[in-house]
Amino acid sequence: MATTDKHLNALLDATARSIIAIDRQGQVTNISRRAKDRLNLFPGDSLATAFPDFWPPVNNILSGQSTQQTLSLQLVNAEFLVDINPLLLNNEICGAVCTLVDSLQLEAMTRNLPSFQTLSRELDTIIDSSSDGLFVCDAKRHPRQSGLGTDP
Fold first, then answer.
1. 50 phi and psi, to 5 degrees?
2. Which of 34, 65, 143, 149 would suit a FRET pair with 12, their CA atoms being 20 to 30 Å apart?
3. What backbone torsions phi and psi does residue 60 show, to the nearest 5 degrees?
4. Single pTM value for the model
């Protein structure tokens, strides 16, 4: 393996994201260790075969119909936010790069944002000052917070 290939692989493996690079035919050319581990995908694999539902938007990038896409990829054991961008060589599309962020990472990053923390404090104040019986539930209808002076 050439030094530049080793350097590229080290760079991909050092990122906190799952990264997949494909050629114009949809074959994986480079992939980060995180993506290999999470997706069980390897160089030479076909992205269209591995993720058939995910292939149409990637193919739109490869064909030049779209310049960038962000979408959600749901798997059995994980959910990702995926950015798909064309790879250009001499102003021609030679492939695409997919950057995947685990939804749990996104949630953790969001919780650290000052705007989220401010809104969370405001919500706590509203709930704590209410004399009504308020319950705040998550998407699965599980109570997360109540206005009854005690947590559910």
1. -70, -40
2. 65
3. -60, -35
4. 0.66
